[in-house]
Amino acid sequence: MQISEFYTLLLLMLLLFLITSLIRTIIERKKTKKEQYKTRTLIKCAKCGYTEERDFQIGDYVLKPEKECPKCKTITRIHRIYDVKVPKK
Fold first, then answer.
1. How far apart, in Å, are the Cα atoms of 40 and each of 54, 76, 84?
2. What whole-number distance in Å separates Cα of residue 13 and Cα of residue 35?
3. In what side-by-side order are the strands of the sheet with 51-55?
């Protein structure tokens, strides 16, 4: 076997290895689905402790004044903004 044939064979083996590695990586990425999250906002009254949870809205930030508390009639504020994992169907 000549040296050029040896290098050609080596190059083909390397190319085959790279192609199979690429295909395996693509298949594994398709199998693993990314987890989905939903952003929620927790509104709380500082005086009586009343809490309400709702979907995040653009413009929400922590300590932002919201609506009037239904229990004690003081202004509620955004207490926390967080993500919740959406369950898979």
1. 6, 16, 7
2. 37
3. 51-55, 37-44, 75-85, 65-68
pTM of the full predicted structure? Answer: 0.60
Which among 40, 47, 51, 44 is positioned nearest to 72, based on CA atoms? 47
Domain 37-85 maps to which CATH number in 3.40.50.880, 3.30.70.1070, 3.30.1330.30, 2.30.29.30? 3.30.1330.30
Residue with tokens 């927790």: 42
Compute how many other C-beta atoms are within 10 angstroms of the C-beta atom of residue 66.
Answer: 17
- Residue by residue, pLDDT tens for the chain (89 residues) are 677 888 899 999 999 999 999 999 988 888 777 788 999 999 999 999 999 999 999 999 999 999 999 999 999 999 999 999 988 76
Write down the domain spans for the chain.
1-32, 37-85
